[in-house]
Amino acid sequence: MATIRDVAKQAGVSVATVSRVLNSNGYVNEDTRVKVTEAIKELNYLPNDVARSLFKRRSKMIGLILPDITNPFFPELARAVEDVANETEYTFVLCNSDNQMEKEQQYLTALKQKYIDGFIVVSSTLTTEQVHELNVPVVALDRIISPHMPSVSVQNYEGAQEAVQYLIENGCQKIAHISGPDYVDNAHARKQGYLDMVRDKDWYEDGLVVDGKYELDPAKKAATQLLEQHPDVDGIFVGNDLMAVGVLKAAEALGIKVPEDLSIIGFDGIALGETTTPALTTMGQPIYDVGSKAAELLINYIEGIPSVHSNHSFGVQIIERETVKKGGV
Ligand code: RIB
Questions:
Q1: Which of 169, 192, 266, 306 has the maximum number of C-beta atoms within 10 A of its C-beta?
Q2: pTM for the whole thing?
Q3: Nearest CA to ligand 1 atom 8
């Protein structure tokens, strides 16, 4: 396989001149450019991307770090990031951190050494200081790291309030909440949105908020305990759709009919919610738009294209399906 030295010898120029032609940087006169280009074709020379990365300290590669690829929300988000990366001829690398700071740091360090051009991170542990130390463009996705960093998220608090209001408008008399982990900023915001809607109700009491950890089985266990201890609960706002599937399983196991006896509304709008029986009513995030906006922000950041706004917050919309009993008070 021909090397850059073979091309230089064939064209009668220095290796540095060939590099300038390959990387389109620095002056090369037209005759020399033609000679080098002909030598590349005659020798079927393929530039070594790693070598180019080393030379340019750029790789045309972006990394996406996600906390839990077993949650269907994240593959839908990743799809959008990948589409934008491909459209702009960036390679896309997907990393799963399992919400572990150590794994997150390993990926960040390893990819930085391969001259990754920038990161999109869904992280509840990365700090502003760590981002500055990375010294490459970073966009926070779904979970905000710092208001001074580019980020893309949704209106979690407002969406939670809208979900609870929807249950109230449809006649629910006692509403509980299955929350995500408190260390995740959007889980905390959704819980706060719920609490600010119900704390003053005469039926509100301790024990109506239980942690489902944003996962199916913990949510099923938490909902079972909640419904056994509070059999008069007739509405549940669930902090994400995966947990809402767990709540549906808990209700089924307890012989509670949805929506006849218990109304359930989730948060996310993942495709899975269309397949449950009954189909899940939820607060839909514009997942594709959120992911593609993050990728667009990062690539503009890498390319030095100024963005008018670097903190984007999308609204969420109710997706009415079958798990909330319709009917006003
Ligand atoms: O379902 C996973 C949750 O984690 C989603 O609500 C999303 O917002 C992410 O934070």
A1: 266
A2: 0.83
A3: 142
Q: What does the alpha-carbon distance between residue 123 and residue 114 come to, in Å, rounded to a whole number?
A: 21
Give yes or no for residue 142 CB within 6 A of ligand 1. Answer: yes
In this predicted model, what pLDDT tens digit does every residue of 204-222 receive, in sequence order?
999 999 999 999 999 999 9
pLDDT mean across residues, the chain: 93
Among 20-24, 61-65, 264-268, where is mean pLDDT lowest?
20-24
Residue 138, φ and ψ in degrees, nearest 5? -135, 135
Distance 154 CA to ligand 1 centre (A): 10
Q: Give pLDDT, residue 44.
A: 79
- Name which of 195, 152, 213, 190 is nearest 267 in CA terms: 190
3-state secondary structure the chain: CCCHHHHHHHHCCCHHHHHHHHHCCCCCCHHHHHHHHHHHHHHCCCCCHHHHHHHHCCCCEEEEEECCCCCCHHHHHHHHHHHHHHHCCCEEEEEECCCCHHHHHHHHHHHHHCCCCEEEECCCCCCHHHHHHHCCCEEEECCCCCCCCCEEEECHHHHHHHHHHHHHHCCCCCEEEEECCCCCHHHHHHHHHHHHHHCCCCCCCCCCEEECCCCHHHHHHHHHHHHHHCCCCCEEEECCHHHHHHHHHHHHHCCCCCCCCCEEEEEECCHHHHCCCCCCEEEECCHHHHHHHHHHHHHHHHHCCCCCCCEEEECCEEECCCCCCCCCC
pLDDT per residue as tens digits for the range 266-315: 999 999 999 999 999 999 999 999 999 999 999 999 998 877 678 999 99
Which of 64, 65, 66, 73 gets mutated to test ligand 1 (max ligand atoms within 8 A of its CB)? 73
What structural domains does the chain harbor?
4-47 (1.10.260.40), 61-154+287-314 (3.40.50.2300), 156-285+318-328 (3.40.50.2300)
